[in-house]
Amino acid sequence: MNIGTMGHSVVVSWFLEEGSQVEGVTFTAVYTRDCSREQAQSLAQTYHVPTIYHDVDAFLADPAMDTVYIALPNSLHYTYAKRALEAGKHVILEKPFTPTRAQAVKLVALAREKQLFLLEAITVPHLPNVKQARELLPRLGELSLVQCNYSQYSSRYDLLKDGQLTNIFDPKFAGGSLMDINSYNIHFVTELFGAPQSITYTPRMGPTGVDTSGVAVLNYGDFVASCAGAKDSNSDCFAIIQGRNGSLLIPDTPSKSPEVILKLRGREDERFNLQTPGARIRYEVEEFQRIIAQKDYAARDRLLEHSVLVSSLLEQARAYAGIRFPGDGEDAV
To answer: Which domains are delineated in the chain?
Structure first.
């Protein structure tokens, strides 16, 4: 993959740092808006990227680049992924995939029509420890409860309280805790258990009309999964799956899943860790490189099915809570 990046947030730095360690991956260009020249220069110098663009048409026309990594504000994901696909580029789209299901479905159809690869940058499905957790599930017996908590205090919440609006809490940019942080929990739960029968969301609302924290409940009939996420407070982060025979504990966010601990009644804990420290993004980049190099359309379609599901659930959760973004209810164009 010869990748050009769009955006200059910290996640772009992480992607460049870990992606550059994957065999077969080269970063050829960075794109930012003209007002972010300093950030673009810093990224290019730090990660030895040869070309900087501030014109998106020139960026997308670059023949040295075959794949675009998009880490722009959430509301811009659909527009720029569509433009990249129309320019004949593969697309790695940062989570959350799109704010609405309609947008996700349109992008998937376009990628298939053009026989291109469209992939969501979400660590959860690619982590070896998440795959290990799935293999251990039968040992828990009949399931009763799943709990996830990803809470991380944001300095931008301080700005919000001071009356300053940033992208992460702006409905215009499809912001809020559900989209930014709780989406990891929902990815984790649906990766293990598929689509729920229903989803509800109870938020703590901020002054801008989006949530600063909240709890989503996914109903699977025989058990429920509660997903808590917060940007207005801190907590220990974890995922716990409870069953008749015991529980599985991940003692951190599902996006990291540094360890899986099997706790069965009357037995010693069993600990599993199949991951290299500091490589959580590398696992997804390695899989994307393999998928594109081998033209594995079946793997692409499996991942896209999951991305569309999560986009749909996030939209349903927002609708339940009364959180609306500009463009909700409109067909993607």
So the answer is: 2-124+282-298 (3.40.50.720), 125-274 (3.30.360.10)
